[in-house]
Amino acid sequence: MDENNKISKQTAIREILEKIKSGKVKMKSRSYFMLETAAIIFGIIFILGLAVFLSSAIHFFLHASGLWMLPGLGFAGLKIFFLNLPWDLIAVMLISGIGLSILIKQISSAYRQPIIYWLAAVFAVIFSLSIIFVQYPLHQKLRALSGNKNVPLISSFYQFHGQPPCAASLIGEIASTTEYGFIVAPANEQDKEYNIIVSPKTNFPDGRKIKKGETILIIGNKKEKNIKAMGIKKFDPDEISLPPFPASCPIK
Hints:
Blueprint lengths: L1 H21 L7 H35 L9 H10 L3 H21 L7 H19 L4 H11 L5 H7 L8 E9 L3 E6 L7 E4 L17 E9 L2 E9 L18
Parallel strand pairs: 3-5
Antiparallel strand pairs: 1-2, 1-4, 2-3, 4-5
C-alpha cells in the first residue's frame, strides 16, 4: 500500500512538472499571494463597514420616519410598514453580508463549513456592531448636515430616505371627545382640527381609555377633515421625537 502511494505521488509530481514545462501551469510568486490576501482583507473591512453603516441607517430611518410605531396598529399598520420599508438599503445590506461571507470563507481555515453557517455568523456580527453604532449620533449629524448644505451623496441619501410613510397617519392632541370619537389638533399643522371616527374595528393596542389632552397616533382613511380610524396608539412626545407624519395622503 505504501509503495503504491509513493508511486502515485511521484506520478503526480511528474505530471505537474511536465505541465509547468509546457506552459500549461504558471507559477505565481509569493508576493502575488500576499497582495491577493491583502486585497481580500481590505474588501472584508470595507464591506463590513458598509453593511454596518446600512444596518444602522435602516434603524435610524425607521425611527426618524415614525414607521417603527405602525406594526402595533394591526393589519393596516403592518401594510404601511412593509410598503414603506427602505427595501433598497435592505437589499444592498443583504448582498454585502453575502459577499462578506464568501470573502471570509476564502481565507478561513474552516472554509469547508457550509455557507449557511458563515451567513448566520456574519449577519450576527453586522447586527451586533450596528446596535453599538446607533448609540452614536452620526446619522443625526449627517442628516442635519444634508439639510443645511448640498453635500454630494450624503444630501440625496438622507433626504430621500427617512421620509414619513404615505398614509393618512396623524399625530395630534385630543382637543375634545365626540359621540363617534375625538377631535384632534395635529402636531404638525397649525389652526387645523380633524374629526377622528372610531368604530368597533378600530385597533387600540394601548387600550380604549384615551382622554382629552393626550397625544395619539392615528392611521385611517381620510376624507376632507374626517379620518375613519383603523388604529389609534398613545404617543408620548417627551420620550419620542415627533416624526413628521402627513395628514393628507390617503391609504391605498
